[in-house]
Specification:
mainly alpha; 2 helices
Length: 103
Amino acid sequence: ALRLIDAQRESDARAARRSLLGARSSWLTTMDGHTSKSEQSLREAVRETARDCMRKEELKRRRMAARQAAELANKRTEETAWQKREARKSVDMKTWQEAEWVQ
């Protein structure tokens, strides 16, 4: 679903950019002070580009956080496995020492 939304937004951003390029060639403002359609298109294209940029930055931050969380989980798993091995070694060593002492 997120990929579909991303694809739609990218498509909308491309359309806004095309609109922006078209608007550049016809900078017209009406005489009564209202903005022309080309200027409105330009503003919307700029807004859409900014939204797209912000969305990509947020996605980048989320991916970074997920990667860091996965790395931390892997590190903790490795540390736990190491601690278990060390505990087993300690028990084995004590068992061996007790067996040697009994003999």
